[in-house]
Amino acid sequence: MSDNNLNNSGSSVHDHESLERSIDWKQGLAIASGVPLLILPSLGYFPLWVAAAAILIWGLSVVQGFFQNIAYAEMATTFPKASGLPGFAQHVFTSDNYQGKYDKGKLIGGFSAWSYWFAWNPVLAIFAILVGSYLQGLFPGLGEMFTEYQLSLLSGVVIFTALIVVNYFGLKDGAMLGYILAAVSIVPLVVMTAVPFATGSVELSNITSQWLPTDWSWDMHHILILFGLFAIAQWSACAWETAAIYGPEYKKPGKDVPKALFVCGAICLLTFVLVQSAVIGVLGVEGVLAEPLSPMIPVAKAAFGESGSVIAIVMLIAAMILIIQTAYLGSSRAMHSMAMEGNLPKVLSKVNNHGTPILAMIVIGLFNLVLISMGTPAAILAASAIGYTCANGISLFAYVKAKKDARFANLDRPFKAPVGWKNIAMLFGLFNIPLCLIGVVYLNSLEVGWTSTWIGFIVLSAFLPIWLYSQHERHSNAASISTAASK
């Protein structure tokens, strides 16, 4: 973003493209607090492959998030006007004073942002499908009126439209909705999983006796599965980096970004380990596999009795709306950031009078209504995880480049990672690309076939023609301005 987006006092100078600095770290945390709920689609999936060791994978993945997000926190405070991962990578990889039409560095940064957009974007479709499924469980009569696809599509239309309306008036209203939904979803989710430990419903033998599948071996086949699981796990367990994407909208990004990030990370570490432990501890691995989409319902029954299933559905629907909002706001900011950097058509950089990128939100909503036609959350998540792995890998490489590039050497860094952190970032960048990328493609081929993988690569590849058009548009506009000025 241009430096002209801020006046000397640091307050926002409103125009039709700049985001508005209106939130503090607590509001950013409220919006990002939906991230712990990203575990829900995978609660029954991970035990299928690694039994109770799924608990360890979730814990290690959140720890991985701390290593990665320390780098991202430094980047967020170094480039306070950049929108999180998509903004950092675009800014760092763009060549200095490049005079040509097609900057390869700009293409790399733009592709990273596009990958991140595709990583967050399908969350809307995944949870719209789950909302439809849970609604059918709450109101069985709906199954007679609508097919599963129709109910999912209707859920998507209602939720996406409502969130556009709520967030139309700015990010502060989105944060208020986040507070409300967090109160009626995350807190009960923690209680719902903690009560079985207190009442003795959790059998530790369900965990210790089924730590790994009986046929598990440390051959290349299982190692690739493990890399694939880490790729899918980080899609959920590392995703609290979304708190940094609102960098241009924090009042004091140097202080607000690290606070929002690390508090959200601590919440994720607690909830991811606790929820998976409770589910396996109560149901056992076989019981979890018998309820692959909704294992929280029998856990709620163990915690609260038969009425618990109704409570669970209501709470989880609220939770799903919260994570849909988190993804909606994150992906719309990524799209806005790409348009501002000239990596998407300029029309997508427009914001309304309240600083909200409404057009980007509408485009994302329509795209996800199409994605719902894929039918299963697992297939959509498999495609989305490819984008998230690419985005994290390139963003970590961007951090390493920013630490070495003389252009950024004298920039103020209100938050600094420990000395030598660029080596940590490089290590995890290589862990993402190529290891996790290869692993998730391999795992997808075993579980959901090649369709989701091809969809993932097709969506990612679609960025090239869009980017070429955007560069042509940018240079045409520059030429028009130059011609007008000369007259």
From TrEMBL:
Protein name per its UniProtKB record: Amino acid permease superfamily
GO CC aspect terms: plasma membrane
Originating species: Methylophaga thiooxydans DMS010
Bilayer-spanning residue ranges: 46-67, 114-137, 149-169, 176-200, 220-240, 261-290, 310-330, 351-372, 378-400, 421-443, 449-469
Taxonomy of the source species: Bacteria, Pseudomonadati, Pseudomonadota, Gammaproteobacteria, Thiotrichales
Subcellular location: Cell membrane
Protein origin, superkingdom: Bacteria
Membrane topology per record: Multi-pass membrane protein
Main location: membrane
Pfam family, one: AA_permease_2
GO MF terms held by the record: transmembrane transporter activity
Keywords for the protein's UniProt record, in alphabetical order: Cell membrane, Membrane, Transmembrane, Transmembrane helix
Entries under InterPro entries matching the protein: AA/rel_permease1, APC_superfamily
